[in-house]
Amino acid sequence: MERRSSRIAMAALLGGVSLLAVACGKQKSPVARTSEGESGMQITPASHLDTETSPVRVEPKITTSVSFKDGESAFHAGQYDEAVKVFKGYTETKPENPWGHYMLGLSAWKSRDLDQAEGEFLKVIELDPSHLKSRLNLARVYLDKGELDKSREQVESVLQVDSFNVEGFRLLGRVSEEQDKLVEAEQAYRQALKVDGQDAWSMNNLGLVLIKEKRADESIGMLARAVELKPENSRFQNNLGMSLELNGYFTGATKVYQTAVELDGSYQKAIDNLARVTGRTDKTEFNLAEVAQNFATEIGAEKVSQN
What we know:
Layout: H1 2-23, H2 66-76, H3 80-93, H4 98-110, H5 114-127, H6 132-145, H7 148-161, H8 166-178, H9 182-195, H10 200-212, H11 216-229, H12 234-246, H13 250-263, H14 268-277, H15 288-302
Helix pairs in contact: 2-3, 3-4, 4-5, 5-6, 6-7, 6-8, 7-8, 8-9, 8-10, 9-10, 10-11, 11-12, 11-15, 12-13, 12-14, 13-14
């Protein structure tokens, strides 16, 4: 009964804050994409929490072409427009090499040329239908374009071939979130964690889904564990702060938001969140290390064998 009452109270808080946000005009809300919210002032489903921003894993090592190396160097230096030029030239001279098209696709995607990225990943798949990385990154492109059914199709094709693909389950979770299928999203993130109990991004995204589902009390452990694994990630710090705040642990939230700001002084969401909770106190202490380890133990017990 007490648990139900707390959820009703939180639902009332969420609803009341939405009205306040409307009344305040263009006032910025405090958290980011996927599932964002705050307690006390305004909580909206899309403002100051942060989910995965499509991390890219680049593995091809081709040493036969100086221009390919130049393209890789430009890509890793964040010079994506330059990388596009180099890899475009490379694919014109070696159109049969799928890795050239793959890197051109990645570079175009990072340059926000989604149409070109789509075309290049499709070219890779035409050359090599078993190229799972291109399918996963094509799914990310479709996510960015809002073509969710196409994104899901690519992800599911990967999981049919590789049922232990962590990126595949994480992306399936993201697609499901965008389609407002939160139960499916939760299941996908939990499956990713069964395969890899240290996948911090799946922990982060799962925590945000639970906050969306008004289950913030269940989100602390996984967000604390994500921070424990990657303490340098300001987004994880911010999201943990939001979970603590929603659960009334203002002192802990203040410390975590402060860490996020120290890691990234330009992180406006964390700055706004910190300003909102500074000076607020709670009557209870909270052991983050303990709840993080409890979640790690839980995930370890559910780990599936890949043999």
